[in-house]
Amino acid sequence: MNPPAKTSAPASATSNPDKSARLLKEYDCDTIHFAGSDNASYERHLIFDNVIDPAVASDRERFEALAHAVRDVLARRWVRTEETYARKNPKRVYYLSMEFLIGRSLANNVTNLLLHPLVQPAVGQKNLDWLALLEQEPDAGLGNGGLGRLAACFLDSMATMELPAMGYGLRYEYGIFKQTIKDGWQEEQPDNWLRRTDPWEVARPEEQVRVNLNCAFRMDAGNLHAIPGQCSNLIGVPYDRPIIGYGGKTINTLRLWAAASAHYFDFQKFSSGDFVGALAEMLAAESLTRVLYPDDSTARGKALRFVQEYFLVACSLADLVRRFRKTNSDWSKLPDHVAIQLNDTHPSMAVPELMRILLDEAKLGWDEAWNIARRTLAYTNHTLLPEALEKWPVVWFERLLPRHLELIYEINRRLLDDVRSKFPGDEGRVERISLVEETDGRKIRMANLAIVGSHSTNGVAAIHSGLLRTMTVRDLAEMFPERFNNKTNGVTPRRWLLLSNPPLAKIITDAIGEGWITDLGQLRKLKPLAGDKQFQDAFLSAKREAKAQFAAWLKTATGQLIDPDSIFDCQIKRIHEYKRQLLNALRVVVLYNWLRANPGIKMTPRTFFFAGKAAPAYHLAKVIIKFINNLAGTIDGDPAVRGKIQVVFLPEYDVTLAERLIPASDVSNQISTAGYEASGTSNMKFMMNGALTLGTRDGATIEMAEEAGEENFFMFGLTAQQVTDSGGWYNPHWHYENEPETRAALDLIFSDHFSRNERGVFNDLRGALLTHGDHYMHLADLKSYLEADQKLVELYANQGAWARKAILNMASSGKFSSDRTIAEYATEIWDAKPCPVT
Asked: Which of the following is catalytic: 178, 255, 375, 685?
């Protein structure tokens, strides 16, 4: 995508030259300059890294040079951070996650280092196009959605709060996929985000880890096959990325593991002419971290994901144990110096892996090892969907990890003895709690393993944590009630307000000072200004500026034209039935029908934005994307509604797109079926950027409405309890037969009005909504959704009243900072304290 109009300097809400100068003096590198002399860091990197005349450098080469210049500034503090941790030996937090959706780093690192006063002159003096430089950096392909973005926010907060912490993940060569749209359908393309050198990462081959598997691999007719019983090993090569706390005082590390082979080249096979076979071991190893979440619709895809998860756990635990043993000889002290947080079920193999280390390497007895492991490990659950609670076939453990299976069986034997002792005669409970599921092929229940093997299990919103305890894992919660707690998610205000929305950040800082950047609770000071006409005007002006900027970017990037004076109505998240993008589309169809029946009506124009990816094997989600795109095309081609409503599907949803669209949004749709969304985090980003929520009582949206007052939200639909209670008798045909607007919308869809040249292409929607029972209750909530939507439109007509509610939302968003969430983890789960860098 091409950047919008050229700009010569990065925008900042808090460009404080004195603060930056003090910071550089602390770094002992105040002589480093970005521009202004022949020895400037920026030009030095252009010449010595790329061997090129700065006058003819490409935008990509300029980006790399500027990024390396920024890295020069942070390098000393990064080293000093590690030196401080080694010297003070504090308790360290290790955050294990299969995803870290960190987005682009240049602007974020400049912001957190307070380097704007230095970067601005460099950009201006060299006549650089700042936005063009930013466009040269791809979004790091390390995550898919909310899980990975949450992990990235948490790392930012831990560094800002000076907590000694480290993230562990995998260095995927390709992200999940690049999404393109062809004839309305999603198509997946490789996301080769590492095609060019990443200026932020530092390879650490000297700290590589060997991972043993009870399996080898061979190449046969171009296919890779596993050979059970023949041991092999993989090499985990670490790559480190800096995680900069705001102000640049602490720079923690995100360590990503790339897979390699110990013996990558078989010279004998190559000499005999078997050129592919000579590289089989290397191909097998490197394939492990090739792609984020391989297609799990096949057994091979699932097996690769299984090995990915073990590889992450094995490398990370070996590394953190090495760090612990540098300064600690007593294994019993491990829980006093190490806290391991498992981000969802993916790293659950940390339980048997840590037990293996303590039993086989440390030679501890079972009871002591189990006590140490359980006190060290903690688990975060992110879902109530049964299919998302991973279960791995026992046969895979038998073939690849037999020792781990032995340990799981022993953990399970002792667990079930305790269950029978506490609940005598309740064999149903025993079966439900067991780590081994015996039906439909024996499987290991990874969520159960994580709960049993840790001292803490937390949900990520109050409603989610309650449903987790009372429904999803009720038997385990009754067995270990003291282990369950809630930690409502949060997002970092540095990236999601300060960096992504400079116009709004500026009026906030002008009104209440800079303290909100590291203490979002200070936004409550804005509440008295919600009714102030001058501040309302400033807020509306900032919103209009963000909308105009987004419209300009979209025109340049895609050629699409949108009206910045229309209501920006957004739903951006992974495409899934329970998130109900289809319900949103039905709302648009009803509005479309109404406008066709009332062509002379006067109304504020509306632009409905959708964005999100569907899993490659999720057919219905792809059909929903197709429907949204066909709906957009039909509306664009209908003169009766053109200029009044517009639908835009934005492909390739990522962090950068969210940073552009969320500040510009007026309306945030958070419309999941109640009881299905664990928390949500886009809802929080929209709220702190002054969008009003149109949503169900689900996830963290409930708590957001409590903070701001439900009268300042547009809530609708069934509650989680009502959804559960109606499961046995709900009939979507009732709504079709008794609600005229619902019937008219569905009839229009099923008449192929939106697919005139593709007859029957949306038959699957009929199946989902009517034939198969509307599992996610779209039709049950449609009428309520439309009523709430009408109230929203009526309020928008009164801009002063709209601004008042939006400001109150923004002022009430302090609870949803990831700083607050991490403070709760640190005090209530990890017992970790700040360790200032000295």
From this structure: 685
| Longest Cα separation, the chain | 82
For residue 809, what are its two tokens? 């939302």
Residues 60, 64, 67, 69, CA torsion sign? negative
Structure tokens at 637: 């081609």
Is the distance from CB of 414 to CB of 424 less than 8 angstroms?
A: no
Rounded Cα gap, residues 809 and 796, in angstroms: 15
Tell me whether residue 418 is exposed, middle or buried, using C-beta atoms within 10 angstroms of its C-beta: 0 to 12, 13 to 18, 19 or more. middle
> What is the DSSP secondary structure assignment for residue 174, as one 8-state letter?
B
Q: Which of 92, 241, 323, 579 is catalytic?
A: 579
Distance of CA 12 to the CA centre of its chain: 25
Quick check: helix, strand or coil at residue 438?
coil
The yes-or-no answer on residue 685 being catalytic is yes
Concerning whether 743 is annotated as a catalytic residue, the answer is no
Count of beta carbons in the 10 Å neighbourhood of residue 540: 17
Catalytic residue among 77, 469, 495, 573: 573
CA-CA distance, 790 to 809, in Å (whole number)?
Answer: 20
Which residues are within 8 A (CB) of 615 and not within 5 positions of it... i.e. 6 or more apart? Answer: 621
Question: Distance (Å, rounded) from C-alpha 590 to C-alpha 794?
Answer: 17
Which residue has 């509005």 as its token pair?
591
- CA-wise closest residue to 390 among 443, 314, 311, 337: 443
Of 171, 445, 574, 606, the active-site residue reads 574
On whether the CB atoms of residues 376 and 357 are closer than 8 A, the answer is no
Which of 457, 472, 673, 681 is catalytic? The answer is: 681
Active site residue 509: no
Q: Look up 269 and say whether it is catalytic.
A: no
What secondary structure does DSSP assign to 321-353, as a single string? HHHHHHH---GGGHHHHEEEEEESSTTTTHHHH
Reply yes or no on whether the pLDDT at 111 is more than 60. yes
| Catalytic annotation present for 791 | no
CA–CA separation, 9 vs 301, rounded Å? 45
**Residues whose CB falls within 8 Å of the CB of residue 753, separated by 6 or more in sequence, listed in order:** 634
Q: Which residue type, as a one-letter code, is found at position 181?
A: I
Beta carbons of 644 and 598 less than 8 angstroms apart: no
Section 453-481 average pLDDT: 97
In the chain, helix, strand, coil percent, each to 5? 55, 15, 35
Position 22 scores a pLDDT of 61
How large is the average pLDDT for residues 693-716? 98
Rg (CA), the chain: 27
**Residue whose token pair is 């979209």:** 554
Q: Mind listing the pLDDT tens digit for each residue in 604-636? A: 999 999 999 999 999 999 999 999 999 999 999
Residue bearing the bigger pLDDT, 216 or 453: 453
The string of pLDDT tens digits covering residues 277-333 is 544 566 667 788 988 876 666 667 788 899 999 999 999 999 999 999 999 999 999
Taking the C-alpha atoms of residue 680 and residue 491, their distance in angstroms, rounded to an integer, is 10
360 backbone φψ class: left, alpha, beta (φ>0; ψ -120 to 50) = alpha
391 is catalytic: no
127-131, Cβ contacts within 8 angstroms, sequence gap of 24 or more: 127/8, 128/8, 128/62, 128/66, 129/3, 129/6, 129/7, 129/8, 129/59, 130/7, 130/8, 130/9, 130/10, 131/3, 131/4, 131/5, 131/6, 131/7
- Distance, CA of 441 to CA of 423 (rounded, Å): 27
How many angstroms separate the CA atoms of 766 and 586, rounded? 12
**Cβ(54)–Cβ(46) under 8 Å?**
yes
Query: How far does CA 792 lie from the centroid of its chain?
Result: 29
Strand, coil or helix: 236: strand
Taking only the tens place, the pLDDT of each residue in 637-683 is 999 999 999 999 999 999 999 999 999 999 999 999 999 999 999 99
